Amino acid sequence: MEQSDLMVPFDAPSAKVRIGNDVWIGETVRIREGVSIGDGAIIAVDALVTQDVAPFSVVGGVPARVIRHRFDPHLSSAFLQLEWWRYAVSDLIPLHPDQPARFAVALERAVASGQLQPMAEDRFLLRDLLRTQVSG
Fold this sequence. Notes:
This protein is an alpha/beta fold. It folds into 2 domains: about 1-70, UDP N-Acetylglucosamine Acyltransferase, domain 1 (3 Solenoid); about 70-135, no CATH class. It has helices spanning about 5, 75-80, 90, 100-110, 125-135; strands at about 20, 25, 30, 35, 40-45, 50, 55-60, 65-70. A hairpin with a 4-residue loop joins strand 7 (about 55-60) and strand 8 (about 65-70). It starts with a helix and ends with a helix. The mean pLDDT is about 90.
């Protein structure tokens, strides 16, 4: 038997990290392959994220653990259903996004009445965005 017969190529499966909308990730955060970061989550500086992070959770530590939730369950559910990030920021400002409960009610009314329409979806990869910044 030759040595090459004993060597088996190792191709580790690469599971992509999924990062939701309205997510803040602190400096020097490390995220394990295959982890999903839910919409609205906040990851504290230096955290090591080894498990999925629920929407609107604030996590930190090594390994990362839930510190608190940004909103109560009802408001979190409303924001997930409304998907506010699909609308132009200029359309959202008059709805008082600095007051989350008031904002959710106003957004729901504006969407239901047809006053707000989602923006056209422009999907991009972060690597493409970074490439344009470097070359531009």
